[in-house]
């Protein structure tokens, strides 16, 4: 019997969402992992981007123990995280036309690379423009978003499109509009968001798929180890040096 206290209800809701993405997004996860493996084998570079709290899932796969060393963060000043003051500025920047173009123009992204874009709603100008322009450069795009937003909200991009419309692979996080899993009669608004839990799990599933795909092709996956285990720093040093031309968070 599940715990009906708020903590138990939230964990049940999160577990339910994870079961859904496991069962309903398996093909998309496989396709995304294969795309990343293809990119690595072809000599391409890997990037991840997310705005606001969506950036947490992007950051989780960069310079990560147990993760692929080749995953780089594509950072947009004032948008990655909530450290900008005031925090509301980050939300405003997501709606600015042209910002993604300026970022891509000054980024190391090039044809043959792969970019993961995480955006819960997928409706703001920044993620839509980022995906659209990246593909125009010859970059493969994987989108992590909630398709419910595309069905129930309006795009904030001039094209009227959503992130999902400009991706090679789309992963649906299944998060309901509003990103709040719980309600109580004594609380005036829904609460307890689960989008970070699900987006992070989806991306780790994709990277696990990519890692296994590389090994199946006889390619040693460029994995990082924890610096808190014996030999971890030496291992990571060798990997970072071997792939220094595809790693941008070290230099």
Automatic annotation (TrEMBL):
Pfam families: SIS_2. Gene3D superfamilies: Glucose-6-phosphate isomerase like protein, domain 1. Residues 36-220 form the SIS domain. SUPFAM superfamilies: SIS domain. Belongs to the UPF0309 family. NCBIfam families: PRK02947.1. This is UPF0309 protein GCM10010421_20290.
